[in-house]
Specification:
Distance between the termini: 14 Å
Strand order of the largest sheet: 2-6-1-7-8
Oligomer: single chain
Number of strands: 8
Order of helices and strands: EHEHHEEEHHEHEHHEH
Helix content: 40-55%
Strand content: 15-25%
Largest sheet: 5 strands, parallel
């Protein structure tokens, strides 16, 4: 049986995870948040006192210790690091920035991409990240580049954190997002860019429901 793969790329804060998750649930697809896997790797580094920027070898030498699994429950996707549920912890701002630093390390990407490709061979999937269309799933039947203005993305993230009762600073969130954009776009291995055959969806002026419907429409055209 040939499964359908939907690849969604885009910068930090574009709403890829929430929009993809909702579309997948509506269509009966499996949602795979690749960013969560890089966040888990970043959390491993943080908890083990590894300075990702200045000592990448320290992380590379311990790659075999990084055991990341994704499980699906009634609550949705749960991410485990060495059998510990870290689904909430990996959403912290320190982990968000760390994930971008981890993602530039070729050896880390190699380990996680292999796992992501195996997942796509076992079910109809919607997979989102930074390089899914061009690198992880280049043969995906549907490719989307989801983006929005930096101001809009930062404000959405700010409101999301405030609604969760998390104290945060808008200017810092915007600066961190700008840093991640630059880091993701300029990395040597599989940089963030729109694949030539990907459909561009700018959600700056779209609400959540409109964004979900845009993606579902593209997928249903293939189905």
């Amino acid at each position: 049986m040939k499964y359908i793969s939907v690849a969604i790329d885009g910068p930090a804060g574009a709403g890829k995870s929430s929009v993809s998750k909702t579309a997948a649930k509506s269509l009966g697809f499996t949602y795979i948040d690749t960013g969560a896997m890089y966040r888990a790797a970043a959390l491993f580094a943080i908890e083990n006192g590894i300075n990702i920027k200045n000592d990448t070898d320290a992380l590379i030498n311990r790659l075999d210790e990084i055991n990341i699994t994704i499980k699906y429950t009634d609550e949705g996707q749960r991410v485990y690091l060495s059998d510990r549920d870290v689904s909430e912890r990996i959403r912290g701002e320190d982990v968000s920035v760390g994930a971008s630093d981890v993602a530039v390390i070729p050896q880390v990407r190699g380990k996680l991409v292999e796992l992501q490709r195996k997942m796509a061979k076992s079910a109809n999937v919607i997979m989102d990240g930074r390089d899914i269309c061009s690198y992880v799933l280049p043969d995906a039947q549907v490719k989307i580049f989801l983006t929005a203005s930096l101001q809009s993305r930062a404000m959405r993230r700010y409101k999301e954190l405030c609604e969760k009762g998390i104290e945060c600073d808008f200017d810092k969130i915007k600066a961190d997002m700008e840093y991640r954009d630059k880091n993701d776009s300029q990395r040597t291995v599989a940089p963030l860019r729109k694949a030539d055959d990907a459909v561009l969806i700018d959600t700056t002026e779209l609400d959540f429901e409109q964004s979900v419907e845009k993606i579902k429409e593209l997928i249903q055209n293939v189905l």
